[in-house]
Amino acid sequence: MSYKIVFLRFHLTQLTMSKCDQCIVRQFSSLKALNKDELLKMANCKTSYIIKKGQPIFEEGETLKGVYCIKDGICKLSKLSSNGKDQIVKLVTSGELLGQRSMISDESANLSAVAIEDMEVCFIPKSEILGFFDHNNEFSMNVMKTICGDLKESDDHVVSMGQKTVKERLAETLLYLHDTFGVNEGGSLHVQLSREELAGMIGTATESCIRLLSEFNKLGLIEIDGKKIVIKDSAKLKKIAESL
Length: 244
What we know:
By secondary structure, this protein is α+β, with helices and mostly antiparallel strands. It has helices at 3-11, 36-45, 100-105, 126-135, 137-163, 166-181, 195-202, 206-218, 234-241; strands at residues 13-14, 47-51, 56-58, 66-72, 75-80, 86-92, 97-98, 112-115, 119-125, 222-225, 228-231. It is built from nine helices and eleven strands. The chain is elongated, with a radius of gyration of 19 Å.
């Protein structure tokens, strides 16, 4: 584990204990299968933290000692490529769990998780999660279904990267950010990624991403104001994304 991770863990603001059975976000994860006694047990052993924008939850290669439940906020899951660039694999938001696959396979984390906005997360020790596996079949099945869903997403991403042009992938990603995470009051995408991060999501150089965004802007498909991006013509972006 790196020094900055250790530093972070000891300096995060620990939150007051909350009742897991009253937590709305657990209904969107494998934890929804836990009964009242299991939820009480989990509430007594979990630790809740505030993680600031830009701080890591865990890093690639780190040995995870449990899973993280995202109560609020969004993080990016990314992998460092051989050329030193950060390839964003997925954005994860409220209600999802992190670290399930590493916990089950007993392997170090294959990806890094970094907050792209302020987050509230709960850490649940591995021993407790494995205990639920032994006594709750529905919970076990939910975890396995989630992992299978992640693998399907990964397969779809590989196909998209191999068969679609960078322009098509950018259009698809902008629509994904809009439809999945919504917009701010002014209409800009709620998730504000840097140009480098956006390039990492679509698998291209930052310069190419900037050039395509400028092209979309000139065509009236989007409007750009610094980091803010407003989608102006989702129908045309969809046609580009679907190669129509």
